[in-house]
Amino acid sequence: MAARSGWGRGGGGLGDSRGDTDLIIGVVAGLLIAWLIHRTVVWCRAWWYRWLGRRGEASAVSLLKAAGYTILDDQLRRPCNYLVDGDVISYSVRVDFLVEKAGRRYVAEAKNGPSASDPRTSATRRQLLEYAVVFGAHGVLLIDVPGKRVRVVEFDLPR
Q1: Single pTM value for the model
Q2: What is the pLDDT of residues 41-73, one digit of tens each?
Q3: Distance (Å, rounded) from C-alpha 133 to C-alpha 155?
Q4: Which of 115, 119, 113 minimizes the C-alpha distance to 140?
Q5: CB under 8 Å to 67, separation ≥6 — which residues?
Q6: How many CA atoms lie within 13 A of 156 on its CB side?
Q7: 144: phi then psi, degrees, rounded to nearest 5
């Protein structure tokens, strides 16, 4: 009697269509589960940052009022354009607050992270500079929510 090697008909070898189908279903199911986990993590992260942002902006309002600023508007958008090789590119810039104190208007940005609330960080400095140029305010307020302070940032721009 010859020993069966497991290869051939019904032995689970390469030509076994049932085994191939099970493998494909397993791979597809695994990919689907991985995708669902990824989407859940992305959704939870976005929810968490939105919640932190609302909480941070509520704290920012308190800090601005305590520093003597009157809030004129919030989530203010200003449309802008720039040219690239003669083509117009449109975008908008949004600031957290437009405020006033002693007859001077400022745009204000609330930040929650330690590096984001540091005006010496290049990304934060560039963002504040863009606000100063686009809104033409007397200055930009950087609200350091964790540090509980309002910082006045002014740029020496050519007029």
Answers
A1: 0.63
A2: 888 887 776 676 665 677 889 999 999 999 999
A3: 9
A4: 119
A5: 101, 150
A6: 0
A7: -85, 95
Token pair for residue 33?
Answer: 């589960």
Judge residue 144's burial from the number of C-beta atoms within 10 Å of its C-beta, 0-12 exposed, 13-18 middle, 19 or more buried. buried
Please state, in angstroms and rounded to a whole number, the distance separating the CA atoms of residues 106 and 99: 5
Q: Tell me if residue 141 falls in helix, strand or coil.
A: strand
pLDDT band at residue 16 using 50, 70 and 90 as cut-offs: low
How much is the mean pLDDT over the chain? 85
Residue type, position 46, single letter: A
Quote the CA–CA distance of 136 and 10 in Å, as a whole number. Answer: 79
Which pLDDT value is given to residue 46? 76
Q: Do 61 and 54 touch, CB atoms closer than 8 A?
A: no
Q: How far apart are the first and last CA of the chain?
A: 100
State which amino acid sits at residue 150.
Answer: V
Residue 138's alpha-carbon distances to 44, 86, 116, 133, 147, in angstroms, are: 38, 31, 22, 10, 23
Structure-token match 């929510």, residue found: 145
